[in-house]
Amino acid sequence: QVQLVESGGGLVQAGGSLKLSCLASGRTFSSYVFGWFRQAPGKEREFVARIKTGGSTKYADSVKGRFTISRDNARNTVYLQMNSLKTEDTADYYCATGLRYYNYRDYVSLDEYEYWGQGTQVTVSS
Predict the structure, then answer these.
(1) Alpha-carbon distance 24 to 34, whole Å?
(2) Distance CA 5, CA 119 (A)
(3) Are 47 and 34 in contact (CB under 8 A)?
(4) Is 89 helix (H, G, I), strand (E, B) or coil?
(5) What is the DSSP letter of 55?
(6) For the segment 64-97, what is each residue's pLDDT rounded down to a tens digit?
């Protein structure tokens, strides 16, 4: 059973930083892709960033240059470093991973991920 547990959310002023963590259990961590998604109130869940097994990363245009996704295979943990936060970054942030890994996939769509964490709330105040 794959379990994902996010942490690190909170309240921060615009321009500030937060670092989210996602601890994974129940599988060989290094063999799978991990992604971060977010869902703002009244909006659909959207892609934020993902990291493949070899370390290849991809970001949504809205966070490029401000957010950094990384992974520590020894700690079974994926991170999302968020800098220069804006009020529009306010959302619940979710960690996700796929049932299987295919290197040819881009992994930017929700339907490419089968396992999800419970989410952590990020609120950016002006």
Answers:
(1) 10
(2) 8
(3) no
(4) helix
(5) S
(6) 999 999 999 999 999 999 999 999 999 999 999 9
